[in-house]
Amino acid sequence: MSEIFSVPCPICQKAVEWSEKSLYRPFCSKRCQLIDLGEWAAEEKAIPCETADFAMSEEHEDWGVH
């Protein structure tokens, strides 16, 4: 039998069992999952990228925006 472990919910830190029973893992609930999604949609969260600033500056040059 495998060991069952838990992880903290990224939003509220409640322990979440890491198994198929936890439908929203790593989140504890649909509510926490939607809060996280909203943060990404509002651009409050982002994945760091060394080329992001460069890509944005090239994109703006194409649009004539500086």
TrEMBL record:
It holds the Pfam family YacG. Zn(2+) binds at residues 9, 12, 28, 32. It comes from Pasteurella canis. InterPro entries: DNA_gyrase_inhibitor_YacG (IPR005584), Znf_NHR/GATA (IPR013088). Binds 1 zinc ion. This is DNA gyrase inhibitor YacG. The keyword Zinc applies. Interacts with GyrB. Its cofactor is Zn(2+). Belongs to the DNA gyrase inhibitor YacG family. It comes from the Bacteria. The gene is yacG. SUPFAM superfamilies: Glucocorticoid receptor-like (DNA-binding domain). Inhibits all the catalytic activities of DNA gyrase by preventing its interaction with DNA. Acts by binding directly to the C-terminal domain of GyrB, which probably disrupts DNA binding by the gyrase. Keywords: Metal-binding, Zinc. The keyword DNA-binding does not apply.
